[in-house]
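As practice, study what follows.
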Amino acid sequence: MNCHIFPPEEFIETSVSLPLSKSISNRALIINALTPNAIDIKQVAKCDDTDVMVAALSSTDSDINIGAAGTAMRFLTAYYAATPGRNVTLDGSERMRQRPISALVNALRDCGADITYAANEGFPPLTIKGSRLKGGNVSLPATISSQYISALLMIAPTMENGLTLTLEGDIISQPYILMTLSMMKSWGIESDFTQNVITIAPQTYKATPFKVEADWSAASYWYEIAALSSGDISLQGLDRDSLQGDSHIAQLFELFGINTVFDNGITTLEPSPDTTPRLNIDLSDQPDVAQTIVVTACMLGIPFNITGLSTLKIKETDRLEALRCEMLKLGMELIIENDSKLSWDGNRMPIAEIPAIDTYKDHRMAMAFAPAALYIPGIIINDIDVVSKSYPDFWRHLQDAGFTFAQADTSDN
């Protein structure tokens, strides 16, 4: 469904119970599946990506389709490859069949995995014959996706010789790697991460109770709303000392005049008059908040240079190009450089009609652009249901905050 989004008529005052982290949930599910006599995890994220993971891990079918869930594709490829006797064909959506996976497959093959491409070389679907992997010394490009690295790390303790993983090139999204290692330690696994080499000896996961924290990625859209409205917004469930790299948004949004106050499980977003005149940041460690940061900066009229965005081209869509196309509808011309940098000089062009934002089957496009309604009342977000991938209650939470919606006719586009 395509919808007009209208801002609240009154001052925003809301408290939001955020969804649980899907990044943590999906790692916890894989680790628990590798753990003998595991203790059930009481609560995981309720969203498409995690639902797919739960269904796949409980399925005995030989054909598994994970739809658009990139994390599930990477993690399950490694998990099935390391599960003796488990033979599956792992497939996904049409977009998933366009997302490269050869770097992970090659690394798994170096560990002894039996994986073949069922269609196009280098891309899903994959035919996987599970076995106990030998492991050993393996190299993997660190510049493509940290999920490849995390996928290998989680199965490393089950390998005959353990794993010595050398990361080649600049390490992107490093907080996600540290998250994986930290969670593995919660289940009793020791590791060493020195410079660009991660070493994990053969070990056995030990059953442990585990609680999933709230999602900092979801929180980013409320930081955006706070920056654009100066509203009174509090968020429930965030961990100040979070495993999530996206928790850095608390510092990033200080540049947009939002300070963060943690108090007894409640995170309050406090407006401040102090904003940066120009934004120069590297998002190598937090690429998933790029859309939120870009839309916020553009709405506030803050020129920017944002680097560290090389992974955005292989996400749910090419997020660099998607941002360029959709911001142009708002009268702002972004410049893409070297497939890893976005910049804007602060110039605006007039817009003649209410823009309709295409979401490209990408949940973050919908959620990052929706707050623009505070500056462009009636902005249209196309295919609003895409938020089910990570934050199914997003629109309901916006409504609770005073936003209103009206269905848009296709003729509005």
